[in-house]
Amino acid sequence: ANARRIGVVFGQRSQLWWDLALIESLNMIARIYEIEPARYQQLLDQFAETLDLKALLKVPIRSMSLGQKMRAELAATLIHEPEIVYLDEPTIGLDLIVKERIRDFIKQQNREKGTTVILTTHDIGDIEELCKRVMIIDDGKLIYDGPITTIKERFGQFREISFETAVSVPTLNLPEGADLISAEDRQLKLRFNRTIASASKVAAAVMNQIEVLDFSLAEPDLSMVVKQIYRGALQDEGLRTED
Hints:
By secondary structure, the chain is of the alpha/beta class. The protein is built from 9 helices and 9 strands.
């Protein structure tokens, strides 16, 4: 009974029959899980449309590209409508377009059916697009378990602000908490600690010294935040979970 509630996708392993066409594998899975025929056809049509599988239904799995196989794997995993889905590196090695389609499909299943998705990935994009709760493991130990927003709030104290100036950038006097990243021709990039200096304060300091044509503010990058955590900043911030 529990098997019916669970679906699993492995990035480098297949649950589909290698020499069978996709539709034959899906038909077999539908019979194994005893899916009612009308419901199966409804789900098949939906998945074929959402995952762009219509042209692949009669293609053997061995003849598919990596991205095509992963879309087929997702259909096979979710065709019996499991309550919990484990995804192990579901977008590994895939191009940006296929990644976006797969992420959209996963979000749709969660939104429309309440499917719980447990994701293991090294792709920061997967985490930012799909996850609300994050668990970070370092050397076999759980060092963080909580909302993704908390990581950014507590570790995302650094911002980057870029300026396009009217003339080449001179030596500038910057407020405390702000540092120069680069200054090339008329492009200036600074990093500042928002707990020490505000964006408006940094921008005003620059504009008081040089004519600015345009500027933009970048939010903290999650990959950099995670790097800080692995470097030990997590323990200093008191976010490390108890062993």
